[in-house]
Write a structure and sequence with these properties.
Blueprint: E1 5-9, H1 15-25, E2 29-35, H2 39-51, E3 56-60, H3 66-80, E4 85-88, H4 103-113, H5 115-131, E5 139-143, H6 156-176, E6 181-187, H7 198-206, H8 216-228, E7 236-239
Parallel strand pairs: 1-2, 1-4, 2-3, 4-5, 5-6, 6-7
Length: 262
Amino acid sequence: MTERRLVLVTGAARRLGRAIALELATHGWNVAVHYRRSQADAHDTVAALRAAGAQAEAFAADLADEAQCEALLPQVVQRMGRLSALVNNASLFEHDDVTSLRYDTLARHWRSNAAPAIVLARALHRHRTQGGWDGSDGCVVNLLDEKLFNPNPDHLSYTLSKAALHAATPLLARALAPALRVCGVAPGLTLEGPQIDARRLAALKAQGPLGHGVEARDVAHAVRFVLDNPALTGSTLLVDAGSHLQPRTRDFAFTDSHGLTP
């Protein structure tokens, strides 16, 4: 019987992070569930992962706080043992544009979306090299965004922080090899949110080149594919049902079901 590997998924209490955690748990992974404030959701996710046969624990940390970010991975190792992989999913998503951008907004997105992913990847590399393990199962997956391949000026600070993480992905792949592989997964519009309800989400997805959009399971499957494929590093999988092929002047949140600005 194959030994279950351990992965840390940040922002795993809810939404896409939870879907990724469940996908991995059902395919042989134990999961460390990181959360910031969603404690009840995190414990619900842990219960679901355990029901799927995985070992799972919840870990609280504000990744924008450097000390808490640095402490997270050692806590996971202390409680759960050898760590093979990291999925950098946690993300801050606030709206601004050229006219409203402020230093503090830009810095807040950098501290949440880019810097923690680098710090955690560095910590995983240190953990694995000090343990003397080879690079056969060491991997980091950075969750990016389809917006990087179909740019529009909405959510400017968020987009710039994800662009920084996209640029960091091949840099980390070089710096941390051979102990770690580092890849990106860039989802398209997947889940409803404060600005897009379920009905509008379905309409926006239906207008895409394939006539359907992205489901959380599609993104989760792509993450698992990256983790399981030892020949991938430094590259990014675009999981968007082709939406990057349809240029947009505004973000999905500001367009109707025909891609037009309301």
